[in-house]
Amino acid sequence: MAVLKIGKMVMGSLFKKPATLMYPVIPRKWQERTRGHIDIVIDDCILCGICAKKCPTQAITVAKDAKSWTIHRMQCVQCSSCVEACPKKCLVNKNEYTTPSTEKTVDVFEKPAADESAAPAAAIPEGGTLKCADTCIYCGICAKKCPQDALKVSRAKKNAETGELEGENIWSVNRDECILCGICVEACPKKSLTIE
């Protein structure tokens, strides 16, 4: 009796379509919101390291000296924290999975050397500087948002007894540390900051 059931099942399977896809021979159709793997447009990256700081699994490494951006695919959980944190929007969560492999995949993206004959990139103007206008209220939001701790803001304080202001309002930027990512410009409530 069992042989007849098995025979019937085998004969029925011969004339049906396969229950599974022959992936990767036949590529599957990805849903729009599938989180497959993180990809980068390395030409737009400013190597600020914010993505590495936001990554909960430390899957991303940014080396400014080597001008490289590295991702350990097996550590990445496709949470998109890096994509949301990127100030230049050069990271995307593509809806395709990493190619299957028997070894841990580590992808290294190196920023190409700057072409001196080409026009400077709009994201970081050549010799660009961060400027603060007179409309600044020295609230310190820009300094709190700066990923490089390149900004310092101090505000004059009112003496409770005399009512006079003590100290002075100071806004300063460390030009060596500033990477012109524009986060402070976006965060400024008075729109006092500009990259010129």
Verbal overview:
The protein is α+β, with helices and mostly antiparallel strands. It is 17% helix and 20% strand. It has five helices and eleven strands, in the order αβαββαβββαββββαβ. The strands form five sheets. A three-stranded antiparallel beta sheet has the order 2-3-5. Strands 1-4 form a two-stranded antiparallel ribbon. Strand 8 and strand 9 form a beta hairpin. The N and C termini lie far apart (85 Å). Residues 116-126 have low confidence and may be disordered.
Helix/strand/pairing category:
alpha+beta
Domain module tally: 2
Largest sheet: 3 strands, antiparallel
Using the CA coordinates, give the radius of gyration.
Answer: 27 Å
Beta strand count: 11
- CATH C-level label of the largest domain: Alpha Beta
Strand content: 15-25%
Which percent bin holds the helix content?
10-25%
Number of helices: 5
What pattern of helices and strands is seen along the backbone? Answer: HEHEEHEEEHEEEEHE
Shape: elongated
Q: Looking at CATH, which topology of the largest domain would you report? A: Alpha-Beta Plaits
Identify low-pLDDT runs. 116-126
- The side-by-side strand order for the widest beta sheet comes to 2-3-5
Label this structure with key terms.
single chain, 196 residues, alpha+beta, Alpha-Beta Plaits, 2 domains, 3-stranded antiparallel beta sheet, two-stranded antiparallel ribbon, 5 helices, elongated
Give a brief description:
The protein has 196 residues and is of the alpha+beta class. The chain has 5 helices and 11 strands.
